[in-house]
Amino acid sequence: MKLNHLNLTVTDVSSARNFLEKYFGLTCGASRGNGFAVMFDDDGFVLTLMRGSEVHYPNTFHIGFPQESKEKVDKINQRLKEDGFNVPPPQQLHGYTFYVEAPGGITIEVLCQ
């Protein structure tokens, strides 16, 4: 069985969409202003973003974007820092990883196993 899609509630659909496009290569297939967006990755996974006035995910909730190498993790980390995001340097934990709070209220993990 294959997971087909995931819906996330975010406070700002447009900002979250732009972030996911810029740093993780998702593409937007359709959107309705700042209320809804359908995004796709290269493997056909569908991520929908829906606007909510408040976002309350559990502290440990996040979505992950695995990378092929530590160098790619470092590159994304550096791009985020240069663009003003408060990101810690990657650490070797369960993989070479770091977390970033994306626009809209979702936490993203970038890692290499």
Automatic annotation (TrEMBL):
Q: Which residues form the VOC domain?
A: 2-113
Q: Could you list the residue ranges that cross the membrane? A: none
Which InterPro entries does the record match to this protein?
Fosfomycin_Res_Enzymes, Glyas_Bleomycin-R_OHBP_Dase, Glyas_Fos-R_dOase_dom, VOC_core
How is this protein named in the record? VOC family protein
